[in-house]
Design a protein that fits this description.
- This protein has 406 residues and is of the alpha/beta class.
- It has 3 domains: 218 residues, Rossmann fold; 72 residues, Orthogonal Bundle (Tyrosyl-Transfer RNA Synthetase); 70 residues, Roll (Structural Genomics Hypothetical 15.5 Kd Protein In mrcA-pckA Intergenic Region, Chain A).
- It has 18 helices and 11 strands.
- The N terminus is likely disordered.
């Protein structure tokens, strides 16, 4: 199915150890030592990572995986980005109490089209010697017949599949486990066989499925596969993860200024994690960046990430826009403008338009001195009337609104 390219394999010990020890990789199976020796001996390997196109966008936790794969590609190894356009329709069993929603073929195809554009800044798809390959598991999984499925299933026991932690959770909580969810590890496992890979890169939550692939490769082709498990980039204090299905995280389709601002809004404990996983800075550069004042450290982080997606000049403009808005106190140009009635209470305008959550929240902000006519005066009366003049209102450090009388 494939032909390995003839690009040079780089065995530089320093470069290899920088990849393995950076902090993105959490676990390597069967052992890190064995995998490191394989990289050092110059044998070209076929790496793959899979993504189920279950949502129309990706976030920074996905981006780190593409960045890592590009590093292995630059060592001269073959790299495959597998879009799970078939497995996405099954839905990998989640840690939730119910099965994932099954997607249509059209929904998955549309998601894949968007994803391809999002990841182009992260990998050199135009490389003439050894470009990363994009593949789709619909190409082989859709061709399996019932006999094939039975043969695959015969390599596992119910006890092995039921050991998966999310199934155990549902059993404990007396929640249903659907039969098609049992088939997911077989499908992902067969991807490794179909592509005849040497290495699978996956998140920590995918080790079970990756090991299913290792089992099938060994039984069907008598071939071993390394499993390289990477961090999920969880907040060390809250345990919160970026999630494409829940719509939480810093998404790759964010506009430059928005992406910059979203990174700046991340809690301080995420700064080093994002430096490690989502920049190309060396370990020494990350260390020196983390020694800066927290705001300056985060600003360098935001600029590096935006630069990766949009280029140096755009990143510089995003930094300037952030500084103008939140650093020097300038009113942003693209602020929301609301047309209101002059006799309306300011409180009602802001609550009804969902600028603030509730009247109680607005009163709390007033008492804290966090609401003001921009560059004019603090607003102290929660029942203040809008009046006849256009007003620029600032709420806290990040919310700006223009109120224009009819």
């Amino acid at each position: 199915m494939f032909g390995l390219t003839k690009s040079e394999i780089i065995t530089d010990e320093k470069k290899i150890d920088e990849i393995l020890n950076r902090g993105t990789i959490v676990e390597i199976l069967p052992t890190k030592e064995e995998f490191r020796k394989k990289l050092l001996n110059g044998q070209r390997m076929r790496f793959y990572i899979g993504f189920d196109a279950t949502a129309p966008t990706l976030h920074l936790s996905h981006a780190k995986n593409f960045i890592l794969m590009e590093k292995f590609r630059k060592l001269g190894h073959e790299v495959i980005i597998l879009f799970g356009d078939f497995t996405a329709r099954i839905g990998d069993p989640s840690g939730e109490n119910s099965a994932r929603k099954q997607l249509s073929r059209e929904e998955v195809t549309n998601n894949v089209k968007k994803w391809k554009k999002l990841v182009e800044p992260l990998m050199d798809f135009k490389n003439s010697e050894n470009p990363p390959k994009i593949m789709y598991n619909h190409d082989w999984l859709s061709k399996l017949n019932f006999e094939d499925l039975i043969n695959l299933a015969s390599n596992f026991t119910v006890q092995q599949i039921i050991e998966r932690d999310m199934f155990q959770k549902r059993i404990k909580e007396e929640k249903p486990i659907h039969l098609h969810e049992f088939l997911y590890p077989l499908m992902q496992g067969y991807d490794s066989v179909a592509m005849d890979v040497d290495v699978e890169v996956c998140g920590m939550d995918q080790i079970f499925n990756a090991l299913a692939g290792r089992t099938l490769l060994k039984k069907l082709k008598n071939k071993d596969k390394y499993v390289v498990a990477v961090t999920l980039m969880e907040n060390p204090k809250t345990g919160e993860l970026m999630s494409k299905s829940k719509g939480t995280g810093i998404f790759l389709d964010s506009l430059p200024n928005d992406m910059y601002g979203q990174i700046m809004a991340q809690p301080d404990e995420m700064t080093e994690i994002l430096f490690i996983n989502n920049t190309l800075l060396s370990s020494e550069e990350i260390k020196s960046s983390m020694e800066l004042e927290p705001k300056n450290s985060k600003m360098r982080l935001a600029k590096e990430i935006v630069k990766m997606f949009y280029g140096k000049e755009t990143a510089k403009k995003a930094e300037e826009a952030f500084e103008n808005t939140f650093g020097r106190g300038e009113f942003p140009e693209d602020v929301q403008v609301l047309v209101v009635k002059k006799e309306e209470k300011l409180l009602d305008v802001l609550v009804n338009n969902k600028i603030v959550e509730s009247k109680m929240e607005f009163r709390r902000l007033i008492e804290a001195g966090a609401v003001s006519d921009y560059r004019d005066k603090k607003i102290n009366d929660p029942n203040e009337i809008m009046g006849e003049n256009q007003r620029k209102i600032k709420i806290g450090k990040k919310t700006f609104i223009v109120l224009k009388p009819e």
